[in-house]
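@here heads up, posting the sequence + SMILES for the adenosine-5'-triphosphate run so it's all in one place. Ping me if the SMILES looks off, I pulled it from an old spreadsheet.
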Amino acid sequence: MLMQVRGLSKTFGGLHAVEDVSFDIAEGEITAIIGPNGAGKSTLFNLITGFYRPTAGSVTFKAKDITGHPAHRTAQAGVARTFQTTKLFEHSSIAENVLAGCAAGSRSTLIDAVFRTPRHRREEKASMDKTLELLEFTGILEFKDEIAANVPHEVQKRAAVALALATEPELLLLDEPAAGITEDETARFGQLIRQIVARGVTVGLVEHKMSLIMSLADNILVLDQGRRIAWGTPEEVRSDPRVIEAYLGAGSQGSTSQEDGIQERTPGQGA
Ligand SMILES: Nc1ncnc2c1ncn2[C@@H]1O[C@H](COP(=O)(O)OP(=O)(O)OP(=O)(O)O)[C@@H](O)[C@H]1O
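bot reply: prediction finished. Complex structure tokens:
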């Protein structure tokens, strides 16, 4: 197992945001985390990426205990993430943003940079090559010199993925990658996620768009009120009465048939 999460819990005051959650992320697979608003998805994401310290439980990555490690150490271990609201350097170009991700793994020092040592020049060239390859891979090479704030939302989202991949992660965690993009863009993003896995990077994602999850995920973890209520393949989860109940109970609109299974959340609800 690439990542093992065991009995993970997080309380805020008296509130159990995540309670005793266990699941595995298998190498080469796509694992999705779903659940109604406030189910604890973001909190769980923040726990496994080192942005929050758990109240209890453990996170193991490549057989090493990384429980409670701060975010930068978790990233160094090989876990990269994107954010619900894309965090780019808005005033830098798309290429400069991705280069910043490459720099995170650079070994050259400030002295190397000041004196432009051969090592520094070699690393600079390697970083630029890697940046261009990642921009091509994510389909945004033509935007490389554009200022990040000026490019379409879809391009920003792809740039955030390129930036995360620049750190050469083994596990990439995507926080609502399809939020705020159109259906066509979402389908194209799904293809990109498959290509990321084909590249050898394991993917975990939190997402509300059921069309994307159901067509993409190997396994789905379903949370409700902080607890794990289901785990399985899209087919297993879709027809699980507890899952349907959790979504209906959370106020989804419309009826649910066996075929429809759980309802897609309408845009604009929650964060
Ligand atoms: N920093 C915090 N301090 C206090 N309470 C928090 C904090 N972060 C989350 N919570 C609470 O923990 C619970 C789980 O929230 P979380 O954001 O993890 O859910 P979610 O499933 O990601 O929801 P959404 O789909 O709306 O993004 C909620 O009741 C939320 O109000």
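MO: The CA atoms of residues 219 and 233 lie 5 Å apart.
MO: One more: The first strand starts at residue 3 and ends at 12.
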